[in-house]
Amino acid sequence: MGLIEDWKPVLYSPNDVIVPYFVPDTPAARQDIAAQYTTISRLDQGVGLVLHELQTAGHLNDTLIIYTSDNGIPFPSGRTNFYDPGVAEPLIVASPIDRSQWGHHTSSLASTTDILPTVLDWFQIPFPTYYIHKKNDTVHLTGRSLLPLLGSFPEEDRWSIYASHNLHEVTMYYPMRAVRLLQYKLIHNLNYLMPFGIDQDFYVSPTFQDILNRTKSGKETHWYKTLQNYYYRKQWELYDIQKDPTELNNLAYKPEFMGVRKKLAGFLHDWQKATFDPWICAPGGVLENAGAFKEHPACLPLENNLGIEKTEL
Questions:
Q1: Better pLDDT: 156 or 206
Q2: Sequence-distant (≥ 6) Cβ neighbours of residue 108 within 8 angstroms
Q3: Which end of the chain is least crowded, N or C, by CB within 10 Å?
Q4: Mean pLDDT value across the chain
């Protein structure tokens, strides 16, 4: 383990770590989690150094501090996944204007797309009017300022957030789109006929190597999934997060939930349209938005038995 002059490593015992439901409870995984604890401790000390510099520069009391991450935890069902361990990221916003709310927690849904409108709101800068594709299609921010949440903390201030993923590494191309409500989450796996890809860093991790070796030798993995159902997923995944927080009971193909799936799929389609998503027609069709289709983009069927008809967007 490398050392940095102003970093004092904090080491943890694998016996003392808390193993989350999505990680197998094995010695290898516990060691992996303990190392993650050390990493988080290093990050915590780093945040302290940044705050110290702000204080030294005399700007601790006039700076909006936003702390977040680029992805979920690097464990099974985590990073590169749309299950909650993969899309749940730390998000801390500290305003020097009202410190009475420091340390409070809100269950309102938030997204990293909220960072830009939050910063613009902080500096009172209006979002400019411009277009990318057509003059009639003005670009709109899909995120919202988080500053209002620093006061009242409404429990249901936002009712939906969206997620988009194409690849983590070029060799693990697996495009997905998702919409998350307080109760339900709908995931659309566009390349669902392919196995879910594993990124290089995660592949060599002690946790995943242990899962591979135990699966190959026929030993108990102590995991809540199997490699087979981890690799091969349905095109649609619908979960009731409140009743099924581990996201194991896929409701997408149950007749009584077809209405919920259709409604959320509509939300997702509208969001893809608003964000000019080139995958909006996948996997059953292809988007045509140039030439004869420039003024009226359309999804044209690929006749690949994945069920899409010609649709004007």
A1: 206
A2: 149, 153, 154, 155, 156, 157, 158
A3: N
A4: 90
Q: What is the pLDDT of residues 172-191, one digit of tens each?
A: 899 999 999 999 999 999 99
CA-nearest of 179, 182, 173 to 80 is: 173
Distance CA 109, CA 100 (A): 21
Q: pLDDT category, 3, cuts 50, 70, 90?
A: low
Three-class SS of 136-171: CCECCCCCCCCHHHHCCCCCCCCCEEEEEECCCCHH
Structure tokens at 167: 């690849």
Amino acid identity at 287: L
CA–CA separation, 112 vs 186, rounded Å? 19
Cα 156-160-166 angle, rounded to 5 deg? 150
Q: What are the structure tokens assigned to 249, written together?
A: 């009971």
Written as six digits, the tokens of 23 are 């990680």
pLDDT, tens only, 74-89 = 999 999 999 999 999 9
More confident residue, 99 or 301: 301
Structure tokens at 60: 């601790």
Taking CB atoms within 8 Å and a gap of at least 24, the contacts of 209-215 are 209/28, 210/24, 210/26, 210/28, 210/29, 211/24, 211/76, 214/26
Maximum C-alpha span of the chain: 64
3-state DSSP assignment of residue 179: strand
Q: Where are the alpha helices (DSSP H) in the chain?
A: 27-56, 84-87, 115-123, 200-203, 206-217, 227-231, 258-274
To which residue do tokens 């149950």 refer?
254
Residue 288 DSSP class:
E
**Please, what's the b/e burial string for 13-46 (b: 16 or more CB within 10 A of its CB; e: otherwise)?**
ebeebeebebbbebebbbbbbbbbbeeebeeeee
